Amino acid sequence: MFKFLHAADIHLDSPPRGLIQCAGVAAESLRDVTRRAFDNLVELALAERVAFLVIAGDLFDGDWRDFNTGLFLARQLGRLRDAGIRVYIVYGNHDAESNLTKSLPWPEGVHVFGSRPCEPIVDEQLGVALHGRSFKERETMDNLVPSYSEPVAGALNIGILHTAVEGNAQHASYAPTSLEELKHKGYDYWALGHVHAARVWAREPWIVFPGNLQGRNIRETGAKGACLVTVEERRIVSVEPVVLDVLRWRHLEVDVAGAASRSAVEERVREAMTQAVRSEGGERLLAMRITVRGACRAHSELIAHEEELCADLRALAAGLGGDVALVEKVRIETRPELSSTGCVSGEATAVELWRMVEEASADAKFLAQLKDDFADLLAKLPAEARLELEPGPLTSLREGRLDELVRDAALLLRARLDAGES
User: Fold this and answer.
1) Is the CB of residue 111 less than 8 Å from the CB of residue 86?
2) DSSP string, 142-166
3) 171 with 35: CB under 8 angstroms?
4) Residue 300 and residue 412: Cα distance in Å, rounded?
5) pLDDT 10s per residue in the chain (422 long)?
6) Dihedral angle, C-alpha 71, 76, 77, 79, nearest 10 °
7) Which residues lie closer than 8 Å to 275 by C-beta, 6 or more apart?
8) Are residues 261 and 301 in contact, defined by beta-carbon separation less than 8 angstroms?
9) How many CA atoms lie within 13 A of 109 on its CB side?
10) Exposure string (b/e) for 294-312, b if CB count within 10 Å is 16 or more?
């Protein structure tokens, strides 16, 4: 019996997005989260006495800022070498961007698969055959699976591949393939990378994405880590997800319905943040995007003092003690309290505005034009800007809920008018 680790998408020294400006947390503790997660991976390998570690692409994140990235990696891999743990790596699209990876001297016991079809690496003692192929260029759009060698008879065959299986919508379709093709290859385990959400696609054979080692932005929420695989008599008996991240991303939605003031809203958010930190056990830094929702009298005040609200909530997070929580962004998706007629309570002046909203929300021609206008605008936005709209307006647009966007815009306008009157 032996074990091995399957990791992918480490993106070493890639900083988390949108957090460096957050007060209360040392910038350095944020910049090295991928290093600390990789250190956790190495510690686990040593503690479990695994036979080898598989890294299925995107070990790096393009060209390094300096050689400290390479020095850190060499030290960590040296620890594995000293413990007799071999490492098998394929390069992914981000690795292929880096010129420095081409000249990196790898420690003994590390094998990087080349970009050309090659014979498998066979470990006779373990009875394992490892098959892999690296990206030569970032834009690798060819299906690489047909070029992988045939399974070795009598061995446990492991394929290492960086791919978007069946064109995963959240990731570029590099080295595309299909589940059926992977199943029919004859391998026992496909160690995949590229898709940052962990998923076991199949168990006969095993087709596994471990997800990325450390979440790097608000789209990568939840626990992150690798897979610990147990083998008995050349047969995989278990694939166990292991949590290794040091920073956890989370969407925190807080119902503030009925809140009469900003301070009341902040108190509800404080309670929700405290509970969220407790649920994580205080073992890692929790980065939260907070969305406040619900019809409340505080709506206009929140809109008018959005920056102050964000500053207050970041201060509340810092006040929870130590580096346990921070607020990445605050989204205000509240609404004013409405009467049965759909108007802001006690505001007869809102009647005409709401009548126009109702007409616009039911006008198919207007909504179709609005969708086209949004599509043109979004096509011109950089990826970072689109990230700021997700979830939120971009989700409503993608799902065709244009009437909601119209109503939200009207409510925002009304809140701005109220704030101006006050």
Assistant:
1) yes
2) S--GGGSPPPPTTSEEEEEEE--BT
3) no
4) 8
5) 999 999 999 999 888 877 766 644 555 667 789 999 999 999 999 999 999 999 998 898 866 666 788 889 999 999 999 999 999 999 987 666 556 666 678 889 999 998 888 899 999 999 999 999 987 755 666 777 889 999 999 999 999 999 988 754 455 567 678 899 999 999 999 999 999 999 999 999 999 999 999 999 999 999 999 999 999 999 999 999 999 999 999 999 999 999 999 999 999 999 999 999 998 866 789 999 999 999 999 998 998 899 999 999 999 998 887 778 899 999 998 988 765 545 555 454 555 665 676 677 677 777 777 777 777 776 666 665 555 555 556 665 655 666 666 666 666 666 565 555 44
6) 130
7) none
8) yes
9) 16
10) bbbbbbbbbbbbeeebbeb
Q: 3-class SS at 135?
A: coil
Contact indicator for 34, 213 with CB cutoff of 8 Å: yes
Architecture of the domain defined by 2-243: 4-Layer Sandwich (3.60)
The two tokens of residue 195 are 């898709």
Structure tokens belonging to residue 22: 């957050």
DSSP E strands: which ranges in 8-93?
A: 52-56, 86-90
Non-local (6+) Cβ contacts of 303 within 8 A are: 332, 412, 415, 416, 419
Which tokens belong to 392? Answer: 């939120």
DSSP alpha helices (H): ranges in 243-389? 262-280, 299-304, 306-318, 350-361, 364-380, 383-388
- What are the structural domain ranges in the chain? 2-243, 247-337, 347-422
- Name the residue type at position 243: V
Residue 382 per-residue DSSP state: -
Using a 10 angstrom Cβ sphere, with 0-12 exposed, 13-18 middle and 19 or more buried, the burial of residue 364 is exposed
CB atoms within 10 A of CB 187: 27
Cα 167 from chain centroid?
17
Let me know: does 306 contact 290? Beta carbons within 8 Å.
no
